[in-house]
Amino acid sequence: MLVDIDHVFATPLFDPNRCGIGYHPLHSEIAIVGYILGVFLLKNRIIKLIFIGLLFHMITDLIDCLWMFSECKDCYLQSEIYKWIHI
Ligand SMILES: [Zn+2]
Question: Does residue 26 register a pLDDT over 70?
Fold first, then answer.
């Protein structure tokens, strides 16, 4: 997906043991809140569909993360999701 363009700006470029949620600018908590608001508030159907797509992308990325965390506890402890839960 196009939203993964922001993965390109991450260092290192690709890390299989890193959860993308919260790490990339378009995967941040602010971005996710924006997608949710967009889905409910936007009137334009095309743009609304794009936001729904973005939200689904976050869900699939999150499932990837949970899958990874189940096999790698350190990955979870270093993830942004862990920081959100343990403020
Ligand atoms: Zn992604």
Answer: yes
Which residue range is the domain that position 75 belongs to? 2-85
48: nearest Cα among 68, 29, 56, 65: 56
CA of 57 to the centre of ligand 1 (A): 6
Å from CA of 42 to ligand 1 middle: 22
45 CA to middle of ligand 1, Å?
Answer: 23
- Using one digit for the tens of pLDDT, what is the confidence trace for 46-62? 999 999 999 999 999 89
List Cα–Cα distances, 40 to 35, 60, 69, in angstroms: 9, 20, 31
Domain count, the chain: 1
User: What mean pLDDT is predicted for residues 55-77?
Assistant: 91
Mean of the per-residue pLDDT values of the chain = 85
* C-alpha 58 to ligand 1 mean position (Å): 6
The 8-class DSSP code of residue 20 comes to -
